[in-house]
Amino acid sequence: MELAFSILLVITSLLLILLVLMHKGKGGGLSDMFGGGVSSSLGGSSVAERNLDRLTVALGLLWAAAIVALGLLRAG
């Protein structure tokens, strides 16, 4: 059982890295201070971005649950 949660943790970790890298930058960095963020979209986030956000949050919750489950298995 511990092996299954360890594999789940590795897979969700890699997928989380991929999903976070797919997100569009929100700005506020050093380049925005010098005019790099002039081309910001005023229409808000698209459906694809909202779905990506939801998927990232769901995967993050699964990742956290795998960590808690591993901790409980190793403590007991």
Automatic annotation (TrEMBL):
Keywords: Cell membrane, Membrane, Protein transport, Translocation, Transmembrane, Transmembrane helix, Transport
Segments crossing the lipid bilayer: 55-73
Record keyword Transmembrane helix present: yes
UniProt GO cellular component terms: plasma membrane
One matching Pfam family: SecG
Family membership: Belongs to the SecG family.
Role summary: Involved in protein export. Participates in an early event of protein translocation.
Protein name per UniProt: Protein-export membrane protein SecG
Lineage: Bacteria, Bacillati, Actinomycetota, Actinomycetes, Jiangellales
